[in-house]
Amino acid sequence: MIQFENVGLRYGLGAEVLSDITFDVPSGSFQFLTGPSGAGKTSLLRLMLMSLRPTRGVIRLFGKEAARIPRREMPFIRRKVGVIFQDFRLLDHLTTYENVALPLRVRGKEEASYARDVTELLKWVGLGERMHALPPVLSGGEKQRAAIARALIDQPEILLADEPTGNVDPPMARRLLRLFIELNRSGTAVVIATHDLGLMDQYDARRLVLTDGRLQIYD
Question: What is the Cα gyration radius of the chain?
Fold first, then answer.
């Protein structure tokens, strides 16, 4: 579903922040992306999301070379990818329920077709009592869980998660990991960027380890 071949990335005239990155994300796979702060994890996720273009090398998405995908096709491809950002990116004027339902509304679905699913997912992530709250009154952990629910509600083909458990307590982190595992078992490829070794040790999955912009893979 995603393929990198000898990808390099630099910002401006500086040194490369990613060098000779080669790996793939097969359909239905589960992978952890880890490494020290500043190693390039977020930059790699942004390349996978197509919000950055590589300085060199080739990236393929769903069998197509990213650099050659027409602009008009990009929104349809991005709909296949669920993303959990570190900064949440919730819309402050929408309730928790409305933020989570937004991907479905954008696709033109009627509320009657998704209201129950949104409500059940919010209950599962512990936000059943906060459905009608606006983001400014939510805690950091609540915002994180709302962002996770929004990324999962449309059952994406690929889920990219940047530190998805960074603002929640250990019991909720374990619960969210189970949610990601169940999503993966239903067919979604999952890539989780995390510093949490304890979280990774709970599930036997491939590890992509970035160190100083270079990638090592441990199956």
Answer: 17
Burial class of residue 77 in the structure, from the number of CB atoms within 10 Å of its CB (0-12 exposed, 13-18 middle, 19+ buried): middle
pLDDT digits over 47-91, tens only? 998 889 999 999 999 999 998 988 888 888 888 999 888 888 899
Question: What gap in Å lies between CA 194 and CA 68, rounded to an integer?
Answer: 31
d(CA 130, CA 166): 20
How does DSSP assign 162-206, residue by residue?
ESTTTTS-HHHHHHHHHHHHHHHHTT-EEEEE---HHHHHTS--E
Quote the CA–CA distance of 199 and 177 in Å, as a whole number.
8
Give the global pTM. 0.87
